[in-house]
Amino acid sequence: MSELLKQAFERVASELPECEQDAFAQWLLKLIESDERQWDAKFAGSGAKLEKLADQALAEYLEGRTEILDVSKL
């Protein structure tokens, strides 16, 4: 757990009454779940696009139009 997240949770736990802590926890869990559903939906609809990009990358590789990634140049 990051230090910032730990501080946030400790602050919520120490400053809010239990009922508000529960409300915060419910909000946070719903936010995480909603975000996960959005990502799932985006990935579910991207199969054809990803396949096209993979085919293009493979064709470029087979044509010799690619080069080895030099991480030191990043």
Question: What does this entry look like structurally?
Answer:
This protein has 74 residues and is an all-alpha fold. It has a domain at 25-67. Helix content is 76%, strand content 0%. The longest helix has 27 residues, at 18-44. The radius of gyration is 22 Å and the shape is elongated.
Structure keywords:
mainly alpha
- Determine the number of helices (DSSP H or I, runs of at least 4 residues): 3
Spell out the helices and strands N to C: HHH
Strand runs, count: 0
Shape descriptor reads elongated
Low-confidence stretches: none
What fraction strand? under 5%
Structural category: mainly alpha
**CA(first)-CA(last) distance:** 28 Å
State the helicity in percent bands: over 70%
Summarize the structure.
This protein is an all-alpha fold and 74 residues long. The chain has helices at residues 3-15, 18-44, 47-62.
Architecture blueprint of SSEs:
Layout: H1 3-15, H2 18-44, H3 47-62
